[in-house]
Design goal:
483 residues; transferase; transmembrane; EC 2.7.8.-; seven-stranded mixed beta sheet; alpha/beta; Bact_transf; 12% strand
């Protein structure tokens, strides 16, 4: 199921800014392309949800335990806590991308508290009329919990804003030089937003004062490393800079789309719920979305890979013995591949080809059915039996059963520069098989087509899609065509 040989895909264009959007730092030295030196990659600062969860949970417990009518029934307190937390989570009150003021959240928080109390009171009245909550208890509970929750949330938000002012995220502004300088100046005048621009990325430099204008990939890379850039402000349609934005997202930056003409007075599309405002500009978070359902996907991987390893262990033993007798020592082939987020891991296979040295193993495409292979090795390649050891990679968590095929660091850097969308494949765990493979994109096929199918798989991921791909892969093994 491995696609280890290729021909150049038609229409492939060099990537804008000329560097790989995946930080790949293999032990043997840096791969050509963009990457942070070891120990210098900035960490993305993410606000923890735990303080707000603790505030809402504590407010629910306090309100429940402070009222005698509720205190006598501990399950009511637990139901109250879970109900409020669930409603707040549904309203995205634990994952705000910007730090809101408490007054902005007050209606949403108080409404959900009131809804939870009313639903709880109705449930108790229906199931146990003798223990029904009185109107006084209901009103006191709503008021007490709302007051404690709002006060606690206000304190958490205040501390977060204070931390942002003291330690702002350095940022680059991307867009036409004049507009980008204007937006950067506004952010510098309002340090309370927690973002401090340090440079402009534009096609052409503009005269006048302001921040330095970066026009080449080398200048962007240098600015990222020297300033520890954590944020990127985009003041033009993101599609115009898609390759560069993918590169910056892969380098660990948080991407914000900024409306430079705010306020819009209804003349522009409204920003989605996950947006907000920074320095008075309407904004929304952009970037590569994490696929949902990772827990279900991991459970499927563990269950299937563990079961298959037990079932095929006799086959693995026979293959290992025959390979040892026919081709000598060195049955297992270990090779560094790039997984989710650009992280390297060691992939396991049965050895079917012996590279001359480590450099050849890292940089040469091995072509299926090479003439120097023994007949048994050709058989392993043709039937994909050489891939069975990767079930151990899946069980360990290095890979998934279904996902984009992993590649070596050298080719990740090379393809990321050449084929748009290649680096975006690393949003999800790499896999033994995938949507591209069941479409016949194995062997000497287009890298560009594989990128498109792999990204389509990630964008439309579902657990059922994984099951369908596994079934179609199993069916294809009946008529193997090689790897």
């Amino acid at each position: 199921m491995t696609a280890e040989s290729t021909v150049p895909s038609p229409g492939g264009q060099p990537r804008e800014y000329g560097f790989s959007p995946v930080s790949v730092i293999p032990p043997r030295g840096a791969v050509g392309g963009f990457g942070f030196p070891a120990g210098r990659r900035p960490s993305v600062r993410r606000a923890s949800r735990l303080p707000l969860l603790a505030v809402d949970g504590g407010a629910a417990l306090l309100a429940g335990l402070a009222l005698a009518q509720v205190q006598r029934h501990p399950p009511l307190v637990v139901a109250l806590l879970l109900g409020v937390v669930w409603l707040n989570a549904r309203a995205a009150l634990y994952r705000a991308e910007t730090v809101p003021a408490m007054l902005d959240e007050l209606p949403a928080v108080c409404t959900r508290i009131a809804v939870t109390w009313c639903a709880l009171a109705a449930l108790v009245a229906a199931l146990a009329p003798a223990a029904a909550l009185s109107a006084r208890t209901l009103a006191l509970g709503c008021v007490l919990q709302s007051a404690v929750s709002c006060a606690g949330r206000g304190t958490v938000h205040w501390r977060r804003r204070l931390a942002l002012v003291r330690r702002p995220d350095t940022a680059l502004v991307i867009g036409p030089a004049v507009t980008a300088q204007r937006v950067a100046a506004a952010f510098l005048r309002h340090p309370q937003c927690g973002v401090r621009p340090v440079g402009i990325v534009a096609d052409q430099p503009a005269g006048g004062d302001g921040l330095p204008v970066l026009t080449t990939g080398e200048e962007v890379q240098r600015a990222l490393i020297q300033n520890g850039v954590r944020a990127v402000l985009v003041v033009q349609p993101p599609g115009e800079r898609a390759p560069l934005l993918r590169a910056l997202a892969g380098a660990g930056c948080v991407l914000w789309e900024i409306d430079p003409e705010s306020p819009s007075y209804g003349t522009r599309p409204s920003y989605e719920r996950r947006g907000g405002q920074l320095a008075g500009f309407a904004c929304r978070r952009i970037g590569v979305a994490e696929p949902r359902g990772s827990v279900g996907k991991r459970l499927l991987d563990v269950a299937v890979s563990g079961t298959l390893l037990l079932m095929v262990s006799p086959v693995l033993l026979v293959c290992a013995v025959v390979l040892r007798l026919s081709d000598g020592p060195g049955v297992v082939f270990r090779q560094e591949r790039i997984g989710k987020g650009g992280r390297p891991f060691t992939l396991l296979k049965f050895r079917t080809h012996r590279p001359v040295d480590a450099h050849e193993a890292a940089t040469r495409w091995s072509v299926a059915n090479e003439q120097e292979m023994s007949r048994f090795c050709q058989f392993l390649r043709r039937t994909s039996l050489d891939e069975l050891l990767q079930l151990w990679n899946v069980l360990r968590g290095d890979m998934s059963l279904v996902g984009p095929r992993p590649e070596r660091p050298y080719f990740v850097g090379k393809f990321s520069q050449t084929y748009p969308g290649y680096a975006a494949r690393h949003r999800m765990q790499t896999g033994i098989t995938g949507l591209a493979q069941i479409q016949g994109l194995r062997g000497d096929t287009s890298i560009e087509d594989r990128c498109r199918f792999d990204n389509a798989y990630i964008d439309n991921w579902s657990l059922w899609q994984d099951i369908c791909i596994l079934l179609r892969t199993a069916a294809s093994l009946v008529r193997p065509s090689g790897s």
